[in-house]
Amino acid sequence: MTGKRAVRRRGGGAASKAPDADAPIGVFDSGIGGLTVLRALTRTLAREQFLYLGDTARVPYGSKSAEVVTRYALEIADFFLERGVKMLVVACNTTSALALEVLRAHSPVPVLGVVEPGARAAARVTRNRRVGVIGTEATIASGAYARALRTLDREVEIFTRPCPLFVPLAEEGWVENEIARRTVALYLASLRRSGIDTLVLGCTHYPLLAGAIGACLGDAVQVVDGGLETAREVRRTLEAGKMLRRRGTGAASFFVTDVPERFVRVGERFYGESVGSAVRVVLRETGVVAGPPALRPARTSG
After folding, report:
1. The pLDDT value given to residue 60
2. From edge to edge, which strands make up the β-sheet containing 222-225?
3. I need a labelling partner for 220 at 20 to 30 A (CA). Which of 35, 47, 159, 185 fits?
4. What pLDDT score does 163 carry?
5. Which pLDDT score is estimated for 189?
6. Domain 2-114+229-297 top-level CATH class
7. E strand or H helix at 159, and its extent?
8. Domain extents for the chain?
């Protein structure tokens, strides 16, 4: 309890100055997968400035306890609050499932995860109220998607399946070969038999396997990627708070907690364009070391 109180004081003090529309938006994930969410954000909010942190030194989060994931998330939140962000986007399903409420209590700026927007999108498109959810072991075990979906529709039937091997397949770029197809078929066999008409991709790595997943499940199943819905909700939040940046050119800056070479090399698959460069930072309870790199222009298409 003492540690949590200390963290909260640091967070509040870090952001004592009210953010303005020109302040950046902080986006983070345990590693590379959150770049799929950042891609949706930069396309939806072309004038915004983004700071992205991948906690590559401690990836994966999916097999870690809620206590550990929450501690990591608070350290990352302080990193962003020190840099005066106007909003935090948790582009990690595991962290959204396990630590979102703690982050919201800790942060003086709005915090949005990816679970609730993904659940809303699924509830909107399902026709037979039979929804599948795939994700990491921690995300599935948390029951976060089930709770979010049942809040929206008490009658919905939910079928879940952890798919841990999808993450290394996505990072290796093995998303369309025979290994990917066989792995997808093995994991999704029970969901194919369940009669679902909607499947939520409950991990930010999984959109890279959307082709193989869609081919396995067939045209009758709608595959939901919460990234675009998350971007739309970020926009609505900024507009409601009068924090939407209406002038200037959008930009993105990248940070990692381990050596950046692999992040830069693999990140293009997830981001849809070159990451360019990333700065390694060290997170610690008493503060953050390393300064921000220069922002570089982000994609401005539609």
Report:
1. 87
2. 157-162, 130-135, 198-202, 222-225
3. 35
4. 96
5. 97
6. alpha beta
7. strand 157-162
8. 2-114+229-297, 116-226
- pLDDT score at 17: 55
Greatest Cα-to-Cα distance within the chain, rounded to the nearest angstrom: 54
Both tokens of 244, joined, read 């939407």
Domains 2-114+229-297 and 116-226 share a fold: yes
pLDDT score of 19: 64
Asked if 165 and 183 count as a contact pair (C-beta separation under 8 A), the reply is yes
Q: How far apart are CA 246 and CA 249, in angstroms?
A: 9
d(CA 42, CA 72): 25
pLDDT of residue 161: 97
Spans in the chain with pLDDT lower than 50? 1-16, 286-302
Catalytic residues: 92, 203
The dihedrals phi and psi of 89, each to the nearest 5 degrees, come to -115, 120
| 52: exposed, middle or buried (Cβ count in 10 Å: 0-12, 13-18, 19+) | buried
Collapsing DSSP to helix, strand or coil, 5 comes out as: helix
Class of CATH domain 116-226: alpha beta
CB proximity list for 235: less than 8 A, separation 6 or greater: 44, 45, 244
User: Nearest 5 degrees, angle CA 8-CA 13-CA 15?
Assistant: 105
- Please give the C-alpha separations between residue 227 and each of 6, 47, 204, in angstroms, as whole numbers: 33, 18, 8
**Entry pTM:** 0.85
How wide is the angle at C-alpha 112 spanned by C-alphas 111 and 113, nearest 5°?
125
